[in-house]
């Protein structure tokens, strides 16, 4: 399986016990839905390797304590520290309404209340303090903040996202 077909679940941050258990810091708002997993893909080198799970449970708020079938001692657990965990995209819970996954809206058209079609979402920049849609309109590039105040409707069927951009923002890019 390729990383492009998967979503990032979290990272192994430490050992938990001398029996090889590890703690994983999850990248999710709902850690409880991953409590009873049977397997996970571990990024080792350039490969995603399936690891089967004997036992998996929440530890504190967003940590998952995992006992892998193949990892039964401290030295084996040491080799996993820092490794990223992935799951197939098909395992993501379906979202509805105005909630969406970033990978899901690439290629959607942004429709502004005032300006109409302001371009197609080329990517999402989540490396800044404010997540941004990176939008292409002809040879111009727009950066539109991803906030509940700006997004008015997500239409998956027509692959559009309706937005109400702050006054002057679109003009800044398209004039």
The coarse silhouette is: elongated
Model regions low in confidence, pLDDT < 50 over at least 5 residues: none
Biggest beta-sheet profile? 6 strands, antiparallel, barrel
Q: Compute the number of helices.
A: 2
What's the β-strand tally? 12
The CATH superfamily of the largest domain bears the name RimM
Percent in strands:
over 45%
How many domains make up the coordinates? 2
Under CATH, the topology of the largest domain can be stated as: Elongation Factor Tu (Ef-tu), domain 3
Secondary-structure-derived class: mainly beta
Query: What's the level 1 CATH class of the largest domain?
Result: Mainly Beta
In the CATH hierarchy, the architecture of the largest domain is Beta Barrel
- Listing every helix as H and every strand as E from the N terminus to the C terminus, the arrangement reads EEEEEHEEEEEEEH
Mean pLDDT: 92
């Amino acid at each position: 399986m390729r990383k492009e077909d998967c979503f990032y679940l979290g990272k192994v941050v430490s050992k938990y016990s001398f029996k090889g258990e590890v703690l994983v810091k999850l990248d999710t708002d709902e850690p409880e839905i991953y409590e009873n997993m049977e397997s996970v893909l571990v990024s080792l080198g350039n490969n995603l390797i399936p690891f089967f799970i004997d036992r998996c449970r929440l530890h504190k708020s967003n940590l998952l304590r995992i006992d892998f079938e193949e990892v039964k001692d401290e030295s084996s657990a040491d080799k996993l520290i820092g490794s990223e965990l992935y799951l197939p995209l098909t395992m993501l819970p379906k979202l509805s309404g105005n909630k969406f996954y970033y990978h899901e809206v690439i290629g959607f058209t942004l429709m502004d209340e005032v300006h109409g079609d302001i371009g197609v979402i080329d990517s999402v920049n989540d490396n800044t303090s404010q997540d941004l849609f990176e939008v292409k309109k002809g040879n111009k590039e727009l950066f539109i903040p991803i906030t509940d105040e700006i997004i008015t409707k997500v239409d998956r069927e027509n692959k559009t996202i309706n937005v109400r951009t702050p006054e002057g923002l679109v003009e800044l890019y398209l004039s």
